[in-house]
Design goal:
This protein has 194 residues and is an alpha/beta fold. The protein has seven helices and four strands, in the order ααβαβαβαβαα. Helix 1 packs across helix 2 and helix 4 runs parallel beside helix 5. This is DUF1847 domain-containing protein. It comes from Aminithiophilus ramosus.
Length: 194
């Protein structure tokens, strides 16, 4: 499939180019998630920001305790986000990416002086938040790849509030929506040397 190249998008008007029987793919719990997501979309389309949408989504799922996995580089933002979720009435638990003090040397990872010696530990972040009994986990700026591992290890449902993009101020879609940035996408950037 190459949906990104399709101009018709008939599937969005009940005319799929590839009919399937997808409903059996969803467990009862996943159907509840789908319904909660649809309710938020139907009731608040274009009216709420993503932080507010997560609030409404979590409420519809009956979540009382939210878990937040955040990058240490976004610690200030994580504090504000945690305070906002607490003001919304949630019990918030959070885990910084460096939890556990796993070193890059232990994993035979490349080291550079500007990024430090302690590795992110997304599997441990997921384990801690699951052990804390969080009903919904919120990702705040985990690195590319670390977010992948966090999603894989988490047992609770996960959503993303912030996608890290150090270059574009955590607004990665600007790479394709801003013509000044988009025209430079194909340029090779030399690797940084220690």
């Amino acid at each position: 499939m190459r949906c990104h190249s399709c101009d018709a998008k008939g599937c969005s008007r009940e005319h799929p180019c590839r009919p399937t029987d997808s409903l059996p793919l969803y467990s009862d719990e996943e159907r509840k998630i789908m319904i909660a997501a649809a309710e938020v979309e139907a009731l608040y389309y274009g009216e709420l920001n993503r932080l507010q949408e997560i609030r409404e989504f979590a409420r519809r799922l009956g979540v009382k305790r939210l878990g937040m996995a955040f990058c240490v580089g976004l610690a200030d933002e994580a504090r504000l986000i945690g305070e906002a979720f607490e003001a919304f009435g949630f019990d918030v638990r959070s885990v910084c990416c460096k939890v556990g003090g796993l070193t890059k040397e232990e994993l035979s990872m490349p080291r550079r002086p500007w990024v430090g010696t302690v590795s992110c530990n997304p599997a441990e972040q997921a384990r801690i938040l699951d052990d804390e009994g969080c009903g919904l986990l919120v990702v705040v700026g985990l690195c590319v790849g670390h977010d992948t591992l966090f999603y894989r290890h988490a047992k609770a449902p996960v959503t993303t509030l912030v996608t890290k993009d150090r270059r574009l101020g955590h607004n990665p879609v600007a790479a394709v929506t801003c013509p000044y940035i988009r025209k430079r996408l194909g340029e090779e950037v030399p690797e940084r040397r220690a």
